[in-house]
Structures are given as structure tokens and as C-alpha cells.
Amino acid sequence: FATLKARVLNATPRVAPTSPAAVPGSSAIDLSTLSATVRKALIQFDEAGRLVRLPNKLSVQQMAMWALWTQFAARRKYTEKEVNAILNAHHTFGDQATLRRELINMKLLGRKSDCSAYWKQAHRPTPEVQAFLQAWRAGLR
Q1: Helix or strand run (H / E) with residue 68
Q2: Confidence bin at 32 (pLDDT 50/70/90)
């Protein structure tokens, strides 16, 4: 845990904002205020923001799914092939089927019963998820 804590606390953003205004609608990220789940979810991603493993702990896995959810456009229909292409571009372990299934199980993505169309479900992330997404977008790992 000490190594994890040091890695998260000493993480530097990929692109260091010059001010909190550099990230629209956000303030400076105080890593000490992030929950353990958020910190664990952040280290599941590489420097490019790609998911490198499917987390074992369900709460961390669900947090990571929100990052993938952000890669889909609202009010757009996707084929399974398009969903797989997006997921493959944002993870490194080669299991887009599991990621797709988890996004659907969490109701972050919807789909027709015959799997002919997928779409991003509209959701308002919780404050904890918002903190995670803000840190993830800032490149904190």
C-alpha cells in the first residue's frame, strides 16, 4: 500500500496545467482528498490513459468503466464492431468483450436485444466518479 500511495501522490500530470482554469470547469486536484477507490482506479491506466488490466475489486472496476464510458458520443448509435474498436483503442489487455459486457451490466451502454446497435446511456456521475474522471483526464496515475 505504501508503494501505491507514493506512486499516486508523486504522480505528475501528462500535461501540467498552468492553472486550475486549464481544465474547464475544474479546480486544482488535491490528491489527498481522493478516495482509496479513486486512487486505485487511477493506477489501472497507463500514461496514455489506456486501461492496462481489468481490476479485481468490483468498486475499482466500476470506476474504471466510467473512463471508458467517456469515449462514446451521446445520442449516437454504434455497431458492435465500432464499440470494439473504441474499447480496443482504450485498453491494452485484449478483452473488449468483457469490457463491453461490463459497460452494459453497469447500464453505461445500452444495446438492442439482437446486439445490432449500442448507445451511450445518459448518466450523471457521482461526486466520487467526477473526482476520478477529473484526475484521469489530468493524467494523474
Answers
A1: helix 58-69
A2: confident
SS3 breakdown of the chain: % helix, strand, coil, rounded to 5?
A: 45, 10, 45
In angstroms, the CA 84 to CA 53 distance is 16
Q: How high does pLDDT run on average in the chain? A: 85
Distances (CA, A) of 12 to 15, 20, 29, 116, 120: 8, 15, 11, 41, 31
pLDDT tens digits for range 69-120: 999 999 999 999 999 999 999 999 999 999 999 999 999 999 999 999 999 9
Question: Quick one: DSSP state of residue 51?
Answer: B
- The contacts of residue 92 (CB under 8 Å, 6+ apart) are 46, 50, 51, 52
> Which carries the bigger pLDDT value, residue 131 or residue 32?
131
DSSP 3-state of 91:
strand
- CA angle centred on 119, ends 103 and 95, rounded to 5°: 40
Count of helix runs (H) and strand runs (E) in the chain: 6, 3
Distance CA 47, CA 16 (A): 13
